[in-house]
Amino acid sequence: MQGIINFPLAGIFTIRSQKKGRISTLINSSPKEIIFTSGATESNNISIKGAMHFYKDKKCHVITTQTEHKCVLDSCCYLQQEGFKVTYLPVKPDGLVDLEKLRTSIRPDTGLVSVMMVNNEIGVIQPMEEIGEISKEFNVPFHTDAAQALGKIPIDVDKMNISLMSLSRHKIYGPKGVGALFMRRRPRIRVEPQMNGGGDWRR
């Protein structure tokens, strides 16, 4: 089948599948767990607002840090305006999150932990495996903005127990306006769509 500009539509899906495969190889995931977005900002919004909206009947508390990217902080502020509760953890003098404070901040109604993998301003690398282990211990989904990390440090979504991960193409010399979102399938993480339509692209 060909489109109006005589471009084989089957070729589009083939190329997209190849790109998903490359991303999944970099982060040790399945290609089926990769969703393309317009960038890390969209991926962060889908992850934070989408997850909390989906689980809002049982979970109304988010944990993040004071040093997150603005789009993460803005998403959390938006949730607060809707009545959700957000804990903004301070970081230690070295820029790292205090793991004990993270542990004690988790509540029965905590629905998401969101901590940036590599800080976009000071470059600190958070202890992802430890954060993921704490989140897993309390059965809380773990989201990370890895836009600054992809292609620069090893990423293993299984070892790090990551449920949702935001990625950006232009941070690794690709074009702006292209990003991706890792969404774990086992155990499955669910999000409420932030836009309507587009179901025909689920292939």
Care to describe what's here?
It is a single chain. This protein has 203 residues and is α/β, with parallel strands linked by helices. It has a single domain (33-194), classed as Aspartate Aminotransferase, domain 2, CATH 3.40.640.10. It is 31% helix and 16% strand. It has five helices and seven strands. The protein has helices at residues 9-27, 40-54, 70-81, 99-105, 128-137, and strands at 34-37, 61-65, 85-89, 110-114, 142-145, 164-168, 179-183. A seven-stranded mixed β-sheet has the order 1-7-6-5-4-2-3, with helices on both faces. Strand 4, helix 5 and strand 5 (142-145) form a beta-alpha-beta unit. The longest helix is centred in the N-terminal third of the chain and has 19 residues, at 9-27. It is globular. The two termini are 16 Å apart.
Mean pLDDT level? 89
Secondary-structure element order, as H and E?
A: HEHEHEHEHEEE
At the fold tier of CATH, the topology name is Aspartate Aminotransferase, domain 2
Backbone structural class? alpha/beta
Low-confidence segments = none
Oligomer: single chain
CA distance, first residue to last residue: 16 Å
Strand order of the largest sheet: 1-7-6-5-4-2-3
Please bin the fraction of helical residues: 25-40%
Put simply, the count of helices is: 5
**Strand residue percentage:** 15-25%
Number of domains as seen in the coordinates = 1
Cofactor: pyridoxal 5'-phosphate
Organism: Abeliophyllum distichum
Keywords: Iron, Iron-sulfur, Metal-binding, Pyridoxal phosphate
Protein name: Cysteine desulfurase
